[in-house]
Amino acid sequence: MENYTVKDLMVPLLEYATVSEGATLYDAVMALEKAQEEFDHNKYQHRAVLILDKKNHVIGKISQLDVLRAIEPRDEHINEIDDIARFGFSDRFIHKIQEKYRLTGSFMKSSLDTAKKIKVKDCMQSPSEGEYVEENTSLDTAIHQLVMGTHLSLLVTKGNEIVGILRLSDVFAAVFHAMKQSEKKETS
After folding, report:
1. pLDDT at position 110, please?
2. Total domains, the chain
3. Would residue 151 count as lying in a domain?
4. Rg of the Cα trace of the chain?
5. pLDDT of 105 higher than 60
C-alpha cells in the first residue's frame, strides 16, 4: 500500500460523469446513468456528477443525495412538520404525519417536473479546500485526508488542473485487497 499514489487509483476526469453548470438535474441524472453504463463493471459505480464551467473546469459536484434533496418538496406544511419534530415527538409519529401529508399530493410527478427545471449550479456542492489532492500524493496521505474530512471523494489535481477523482469506494477496495493479500502471505 505504501507504494500506491493517488494517480494509481483515481478515475480520470474523461471517464467520469460531467455536465455543464447550465444543465438541469435531469441532465445530470442522464449523464450519471451513461457513465455507469460505460464504466468498467468490475469497479464501483459512480455516485456523483462533476459540474463544469464554460472553460471545462470543475466547479462542483452533485451527488445522488443532492438530487433527492433538490427535488424534495418544500412547502409550509413540510416546514411545519419539521418544526413539530423539534418538540420531542417520536420519529415514528413524525413519519406518520409526513406519510399522511405525502399521500395527499403527487410527490413523484411533481419531483420529475422539478428535476427538469432546477439547474445543477443551484444545488451543487462546491469543493472545499480539503477536497483536493495532488496526483502524486501517497495513498496513505490521501486516506488520512478522506478520513479526517469525512469525504466520499477527492478531486485529483496535476498542477492547477483537475485531472480525476479519487473515490472512497476505490480506496476501500484497494485497502481490502491489500488486507486479503497480507492474510494470504501470513497463512502460507
Report:
1. 67
2. 1
3. yes
4. 20
5. no
Question: Residue 111 domain-assigned?
Answer: no
Does 24 map to a domain? yes
Its pTM stands at 0.75
Return the closest-CA partner of residue 7 out of 165, 179, 175, 174: 165
Determine the Cα–Cα distance for residues 65 and 17; give it in Å rounded to an integer.
16
In terms of Cβ atoms closer than 10 Å to its own Cβ (0-12, 13-18, 19+), residue 86 is: exposed
What is the per-residue burial (b if ≥16 Cβ within 10 Å, else e) of 23-41? bbbbbbbebbeebeeebee
What is the per-residue pLDDT across 49-86, written as a single tens digit (0 to 9) for each? 999 999 999 999 998 888 888 887 666 666 677 677 77
CA-based nearest residue to 19, from 49, 64, 60, 43: 49
Residue 20 has pLDDT above 90, yes or no: yes
Give the structural domain span for 22. 6-68+118-187
Cell matching residue 77: 406544511
Would you state the pLDDT for residue 102?
Answer: 63
Torsion of CA 33, 38, 41, 43, to 10 degrees: -80
Q: List the CATH number of the domain containing 151.
A: 3.10.580.10
At residue 146 the predicted structure's pLDDT band, cuts being 50, 70 and 90, is very high
Q: CA nearest 97: which of 71, 114, 78? A: 78
